[in-house]
Amino acid sequence: MNPAPPHPELVTLGEVMGVAAATTPGPLATGAALRLGWAGAEATVAVGVSRLGRSAAWTGRVGEDAMGAMVLAGLRAEGVDVSGARTDPAAPTGLMLRERRTADRLRVTYYRAGLAGSRLAPEDLDEARMAGARILHVTGITPALSPTARAAVEHAVAVARAAGVIVSFDVNHRERLWSRAEAAEVLARLLPYADIVFAGPEEAALFVPADEPERMARALTGLGPAQAVLKLGADGALAVADGALHVQPAVRVTAVDPVGAGDAFVSGYLAAVLDGSPVPERLRLAALCGAFAVSVPGDWEGLPRSAELGLLAAQDISR
Fold first, then answer.
1. DSSP state, 150?
2. Whether residue 263 lies in the annotated active site
3. Residues of the chain by 3-state class (helix, strand, coil), percent to 5
4. Given the DSSP bridges, would you call strands 244-248 and 61-63 parallel, antiparallel or unpaired?
5. Of 7, 6, 68, which Cα lies nearest the Cα of 43?
6. What is the pLDDT of residues 238-265, one digit of tens each?
7. Which residue, 104, 159, 258, 294, is the most exposed by fewest CB within 10 angstroms?
C-alpha cells in the first residue's frame, strides 16, 4: 500500500448543505417521506476524485448542528480530508428541499442565505495546503454566495497560481444566486488564473460570443486557460487543449436523476489529470462518471469507484 501524500492532491472549497429529498413523486404534504442527505458541487468533485483512488480535501463552513456533523462525517466516510473545514457557531448549516413534483420534474428550494456555507472567508483557508496540492478546484457557485466567499475563492486561486498549482474552474452558473451580468463580471476575473475551465455552452456565453461548441471552447482558451472543456449533456463533451480538439460522445444509460452529472464529469476529468492520462482518456473517464451519476438518485451517491468503471466502460457510445 502506497503511503498517503503529505498534502491532498486535490483541494477544493465551497458550500455543502443538508438535503431533504422527497422519496416519491407528488406535492409535499403532511406525512410525506423525505430522505436526508447532503450535497455541494465542490464536495461532489472531492468525493468523486477520492472514489477513483486519488486524495482530496474540502474546505468550507458548516453549522455547529446535527446537519453539519452529518456532512463532515459523510465526507470523512468517503475518504475526503475535512481537517480544514470549520464549524460556525453563529450560523446553522444550509438546507436544500428537493420535491419531485411529478415523475420527471424536480422542484428545489434553498435555505442558504446568511447561513454557515455562505460565511466562508479568506481566513478559513490553509495556504500551505493549497500551495502543496496538485490541483485547486473552484466553481462559480461559491463567489455568488457572499462577498466573503467571493474573496475566499479569489484568494485561493491567487495562492494556487503563485505556487504553480493547476487551477480548475467550473463556471457552474446559478441564476437563482445572481444575474448573468453580475456573474460574467465577477467570474471573468477568475478565468486568467485557470488552467482548466469547464462550462456548458450557455455558461461559456457569459464570456465569449455564442457559437458552435468548438469555437466557444477555442475562444475560452484565448482568455487564459490552456484547456477548455464544454459539457454538452446528451451530446457528450469536447475539449480544446493546447490548441487540439478532442471530442467525447455520451455514454448510453437510463437517466434517473440529472442532478450532479456535471460535477461527476469534472471529478472524472480531474482524477485522470492526476493519473497523468492524456486528454482523450480524461474525457472518457469524465463521461463514464457522468453516466454513473445520472443513473442513480442523488448528487454524489452514484459516483463510481475505480473497480466499477468496467460496468459501463463497454457500453455503446451514442453518436
1. H
2. yes
3. 40, 25, 40
4. unpaired
5. 68
6. 999 999 999 999 888 777 666 768 999 9
7. 104
Measured in degrees and rounded to the nearest 5, phi and psi for residue 198 equal -115, 140
Q: Which domains does the chain have, with CATH numbers?
A: 10-14+41-89+116-303 (3.40.1190.20)
**End-to-end distance of the chain based on CA atoms, in angstroms?**
40
Set of cell numbers at residue 226 = 490552456
Give the residue from 157, 164, 233, 234 showing the smallest Cα distance to 197: 157
Q: Which grid coordinates are listed for 154?
A: 479569489
Question: Which one, of 280, 307, 279, 277, lies nearest residue 292 by Cα?
Answer: 307
Q: Catalytic residue, from 124, 170, 263, 299: name it.
A: 263
pLDDT digits (tens, 9 = 90+) for 148-207: 999 999 999 999 999 999 999 999 999 999 999 999 999 999 999 999 999 999 999 999
Neighbouring-strand partners of residue 198: 170, 229
Helices (H), the chain: 41-51, 66-77, 127-132, 147-162, 180-187, 201-204, 213-221, 261-275, 279-294, 310-313
264-278 burial, b for 16+ CB within 10 Å, e for fewer? bbbbbbbbbbbeeee
The total of other beta-carbon atoms located within 10 Å of residue 155's CB is 18
DSSP secondary structure letters along 231-265: E-GGG-EEEEETTEEEEEPPBP---S--TTHHHHH
Can you tell me the distance from the alpha carbon of 12 to that of 29, in angstroms, rounded to the nearest whole number? 37
